[in-house]
Design a protein that fits this description.
One of its GO terms (molecular function) is ATP binding. About 35% of the residues lie in helices and about 20% in strands. It is α+β, with helices and mostly antiparallel strands. It folds into two domains: about 90 residues, 2-Layer Sandwich (Phosphorylase Kinase, domain 1); about 190 residues, Transferase(Phosphotransferase) domain 1 (Transferase(Phosphotransferase), domain 1), CATH 1.10.510.
């Protein structure tokens, strides 16, 4: 039996609606015939062998993890469409949507996420990143639209297609240019780390590209948009803007500790950025004390 027939046999025959259109992929809402649950069916259009390899890479990356803060892959198959193919990835459907939709809805009301909501969300994102980094990989495209929220507001990292080895040793200008071109295609410009805009001929790129992106996500939660979103929308140079240390606006809404943590993530030199384990330690200290616990210091 063809794999797509097996996959289709577990789903309703009608696709309920298109949830999202993402470049060369589409996400449909489908219903399971056996369990009655809703799923997201991601269909990746593959025009050639390279596209198919990239889709299978995304499948492989999902297979590395069984973590509550990383979206799990329920099933997958490759479907022939004439001379072309589609990779089908069956994923859980989280009806609450993305972190960006949450931030955007609040911004439209003229308000922002309070710190007591930001810290638990950031903790969950960091736990997902820690699991990825522990396997020797980096996400490389962390942004608010790639973070889903479940019904308990726990973040779940998605879109693992840009993941690659955490530590990349660049030897020579040809390798540098190849990595730079890859980043231009796979890493969203307004969340891309400075070292990926102009890759040096002899250097090591590591997982702290994710820490820069994490800082941009935190900034978005605090101020309603990423620090370089407006620069990109205006057509100005993001590559130039990220070379200067980000100045965190004084809002009065957040603790000095959270603002300091943000500044540390946005260090232009990747060697000055903390690793995710350090950020987790800092965030544990920002967690509100359990209700009823006396936090008075003597």
């Amino acid at each position: 039996i063809p794999p797509e027939k097996i996959l289709c046999s577990t789903l309703s025959t009608t696709i309920d609606k298109l949830v999202a259109e993402l470049g060369f992929s589409y996400v449909d809402l489908v219903e399971g015939l056996r369990d009655g649950r809703f799923y997201a069916l991601k269909r990746i259009l593959c025009h050639d062998k390279e596209d198919r390899q990239e889709a299978l890479h995304e499948v492989e990356m999902h297979g590395l993890f069984a973590h509550p803060n990383i979206l799990r892959l329920e099933a997958h198959c490759m479907v022939e469409k004439g001379t072309k193919h589609e990779a089908w990835l069956l994923l859980p459907f989280l009806r609450r949507g993305t972190l960006w939709s949450e931030v955007e809805a609040l911004r439209d009301k003229g308000t922002f996420l309070p710190e007591e909501r930001i810290v638990p969300i950031l903790l969950g994102i960091c736990r997902g990143l820690q699991a990825i980094h522990a396997k020797g990989y980096a996400h490389r495209d962390l942004k608010p639209t790639n973070v889903l929220l479940d019904d308990e507001e726990q973040p779940v990292l998605m879109d693992l297609g840009s993941m690659n080895r955490a530590r990349i040793e660049v030897k020579g200008s040809r390798e540098a240019m190849a990595l730079q071109d890859w980043a231009a295609q796979r890493c969203t410009i307004s969340y891309r780390a400075p070292e990926l805009f102009t890759v040096e001929s002899h250097c090591v790129i590591d997982e702290r590209t994710d820490i820069w992106s994490l800082g941009c996500v935190l900034y978005c939660m605090m101020f309603g948009e990423g620090p370089y979103d407006l620069i990109f929308q205006k057509g100005d140079s993001v590559a130039l803007a990220v070379q200067n240390q980000l100045r965190v606006p004084a809002s009065g809404r957040y603790s000095a500790a959270l603002e300091c943590l943000l500044s540390s993530m946005m260090a232009v030199n990747p060697q000055d950025r903390p690793h995710v384990s350090h950020i987790l330690d800092q965030l544990e200290g920002l967690q509100p004390a359990p209700s009823g616990q006396d936090t008075t210091r003597i």
